[in-house]
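Annex B. Sample input.
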Amino acid sequence: MIGRSKYVAVVKIAWQRELEERLSFILSRSRGLAVLFSLYFLWSALLGSQASVFQYSRRQILTYVLGMSILRALVLGSATDNLPSEIVHGQLSDLLLRPIRPIGYWAARDVAVKGLQLGSAVVEVAVFALAASTPLYLPDRLLTVVAFPASLAGAIVLSFVMSYGLGLAAFWTSQSGGPRFCFELILEFCAGAYFPIDVLSSGWQAFFSVLPFPYLIFYPLNIYLERVGPAVIARALCMQAIWIGVVWIVVNVAWRRGMRTYAAEGV
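Annex B, continued. Sample output.
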């Protein structure tokens, strides 16, 4: 119980910190709204008077766009953007002296960020959907009720370990901001945060399917939209588990080696 209370306290403090940094939060949500508006009206224009586009019905593709906005906040929203700075400036030293696991500490901070971003995204999408009278797709299969939350949980964990692992690069370089920015752009593109991956050719789809990125947004949304059968769902969940395991091993190796080279004033 005492162990849990430490992480609950971190979540509360991180939540308060995020609310205090209003400008950063406003800019983040403004970017999310800009992406939502641009993609929604782009796909609406592509649809025109057609009932479907790229084998997506009108309800499915517009629900994909709205769902993508929510999953960007829940899955891709992260507190680990600050990890490189804390490593470079020696603030990690203070964390190492506390009776708390560093990865648990960052996971707790991640929960706070995701919760705040998700709450805002849900309100924004709900208001937008009502104002635009968007026809939403609602699943009706029992399998979806089970598989979608499972894929969503896997996407959240996979996104966190990848982002955390990327932050550990600061052990070896103080200039990790640029590569991280480029990585996040590639990640969003390959994750299906701008368009469904299956609008691409079969060759590109096969290439993306072996990467971890589509299992963050594209596959969870396709499971929700009931565009994939049990075999594809099982494969997607297995790929999530495999990539979580692979990245987790890499993160642990990077952490151990990084701690050997870590040096900061007062350590």
